[in-house]
Amino acid sequence: MTTLRLIAVALLLSLLALLAGPARGQSAEQLKADFARAVYLNSATRVHQDQPQPLLRAVVVLRVRLGDDDRWHAEVFRDNPEQPELTRVALESVARLPPAVGLTHEARQALRGEGLIEAWLFQNDGRFALKTLARPQRGA
Q1: Its pTM surpasses 0.85
Q2: Are residues 51 and 121 in contact, defined by beta-carbon separation less than 8 angstroms?
Q3: Per the domain annotation, does 140 fall within a domain?
Q4: How far is it, in rounded angstroms, from Cα 36 to Cα 121?
Q5: Integer Cα distance of 127 and 140 in angstroms
Q6: How many structural domains comprise the chain?
Q7: Rounded to whole angstroms, how far apart are CA atoms 23 and 105?
């Protein structure tokens, strides 16, 4: 296992431990940020922390819901038909997430019903940032 992968696993376990703590009020914004951090930790080699470039390679928008099995499920809300491989990357980043833990009853119900909408912002090199955690986009 590579050092980067070990670090990503350690961070993911830390996040899971944090989320498994006592239930607390979870706003929609907090749920979305927690989800985005989980994607970042689970897809560390595909994520970038740079300012997104002025003209993105692709933007993929997914609606993400929590299934009855507490697993994450995504459906495509918007994609780039010319680049289906990037849509697959976004969908796979959700499919690989561990089951959700530590959610309040209200948060679990909201994620099972409406879910959340998140945008994957792809750079030319195929790495992505999620809109919720992305830095401001660079100017042209």
Answers
A1: no
A2: no
A3: no
A4: 12
A5: 19
A6: 1
A7: 9
